[in-house]
Amino acid sequence: KSASKEVKTMILNDANYTSGLLDAMLQHEPSLPQHYTYTRLLRIWNNSLSTEAGPKGEEIISRLEMCAIFSKMSSKELEFRLKQWQAALECWAVSASAGRPGSARSAFRFFERLNERLNHELGGPNSSSSKRQNKIFFYNAVLKACSDTIVSSDKSEAMEIAFEMYNRISDENIVPTSSTFVSLLRCCQLLPPASRDQVMTLSREIFIAACSNGCVSSHVLFVLSHVNRSLYDAYEKKPEHSEGVAGRKRHNSSNA
Questions:
Q1: CA 45, CA 90: separation in Å to the nearest integer?
Q2: C-alpha torsion angle, residues 80, 84, 86, 92 (rounded to 10)
Q3: What is the DSSP letter of 27?
Q4: Residue 70 phi/psi, 5° resolution?
């Protein structure tokens, strides 16, 4: 976010250039893009710092649909596709932080567009499938678009969307992650300065939930120190408050 204007321009030019290459590849059957082509292009837009990242992410997913790659997928192909959907949704957080109006709303709408497909592939709210936990990454992407909102007129709606997402996480019995609570705490800063009491109350409730879910990571504490300093200073670390974070780290290490 602190990149110079020249670097931002260079990254944006690269993103637009590669998007143009994708369009050219789609017009010639021998050079049709592969899965990794879309993935790399999504990564470029995720790093673009551009207001156009969100629309471009959705456009790239539409290209995938046009190519009929949404046909029956193997488990490995589904893994790739989930990452691509997630990366496209995360592009809206880039647009939000760059100041594009309506980014949180657009992220929510894009999530709704993907949700039916996610429920089909991962299992719906009443499913016992362990794969459903992967939906948390999509919820977190919308939450980040909300917490990264900088357009003043969008902040109230972004708050509403964020807590709508959190309620759905709870309703679907999906386990939140530390990133979930980082974004929710950051959303407290969307409230106007005159709402300090509300910020203190809301941030306390969010942090209590983070403790209960074992999601107190160093990042959660860092954000808490900026949102509710008195609560941060009074907090005494307890192993059970971060056991979920530690458990996920061990799980990731074992799969590395």
A1: 10
A2: 170
A3: T
A4: -80, 20
Contact 56, 90 (CB under 8 A): no
Count of CB atoms within 10 A of residue 169's CB?
19
pTM assigned to the model: 0.82
3-state secondary structure 40-76: HHHHHHHCCCCCCHHHHHHHHHHHHHHCCCCCCCCHH
Structure-token pair, residue 106: 């657009």
Looking up tokens 């959705």 gives: 58
Could you tell me the CA-to-CA distances from 120 to 72, 108, 212 in Å, in that order?
12, 19, 30
For residues 217 and 245, is the Cβ–Cβ distance under 8 A?
yes
Tell me the C-alpha distance between 32 and 70, whole Å. Answer: 15
d(CA 154, CA 133): 29
Q: What are phi and psi of 37, to 5 degrees?
A: -65, -50
- Tens digit of each residue's pLDDT, the chain (256 residues): 455 666 666 666 666 656 665 555 555 554 555 667 778 889 989 988 899 999 999 998 887 776 544 455 566 777 778 899 999 999 999 999 999 999 999 999 999 999 988 888 887 777 766 788 999 999 999 999 999 999 999 999 999 999 999 999 999 999 999 999 999 999 999 999 899 999 999 999 999 999 999 999 999 999 999 999 999 999 998 889 987 776 555 444 444 3
**By the 8 A CB rule, do 226 and 186 touch?**
no
For residue 240, what are its two tokens? 């059970």
- Does residue 92 contact residue 109 with C-beta atoms inside 8 Å? no
Rounded to whole angstroms, the maximal C-alpha distance in the chain is 63
Amino acid identity, position 186: R
Angstrom distance (rounded) from CA 90 to CA 102: 14
